[in-house]
Inverse folding.
């Protein structure tokens, strides 16, 4: 992951693996890499893809990031790669699916405490907008959910209306702050 952050010696080790299909350590022991697929990720070129372009073309084309990759990796290293695959930025639909994934994890944790949570579409859209960064992807999402939703639920789960379980709808107020709406449990009718 993020090969550009690796120590420079790693490139030489990977060259040996890609050239000979084996890796030899300092003690002469060999590891067989003939049936191994090596996948490396990089953010090289990601930042330049976010910069606005000057001129007649207002959008970047696939392959524009290759200049940064050529700058960061030596020709002998690049020539041993079978392919370089560029991924487009996540679209809004995918970001909302990532939001749903994180909220499903939270729902499962709340379910263990006998709490049923409902998340409004307004909240989901806000999380998609504020929890996604074009450079970092959806990595900030978990922190945003921790700092907003989980923080708002914590006291209620420990000492408040959700201490013994319950139903809560999680929404945003007009100021963009998380709002908890509690559904009161109906008391069972007294038997006569």
């Amino acid at each position: 992951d993020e090969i550009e952050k690796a120590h420079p010696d790693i490139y030489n080790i990977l060259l040996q693996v890609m050239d000979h299909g084996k890796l030899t350590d300092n003690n002469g022991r060999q590891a067989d890499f003939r049936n191994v697929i090596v996948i490396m990720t990089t953010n090289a070129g990601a930042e330049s893809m976010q910069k606005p372009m000057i001129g007649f073309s207002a959008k970047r084309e696939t392959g524009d990031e290759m200049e940064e990759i050529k700058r960061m990796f030596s020709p002998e290293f690049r020539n041993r790669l079978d392919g370089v695959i560029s991924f487009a930025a996540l679209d809004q639909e995918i970001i909302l699916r990532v939001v749903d994934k994180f909220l499903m994890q939270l729902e499962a944790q709340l379910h263990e405490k006998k709490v049923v949570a409902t998340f409004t579409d307004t909240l989901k859209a806000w999380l998609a907008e504020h929890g996604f960064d074009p450079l970092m992807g959806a990595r900030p999402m978990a922190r945003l959910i921790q700092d907003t939703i989980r923080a708002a639920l914590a006291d209620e789960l420990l000492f408040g209306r959700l201490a013994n379980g319950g139903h809560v709808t999680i929404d945003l107020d007009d100021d963009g702050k998380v709002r908890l709406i509690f559904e009161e449990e109906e008391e069972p009718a007294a038997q006569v």
Summary: The two ends are 67 Å apart (CA to CA). Residues 3-78 form one domain.
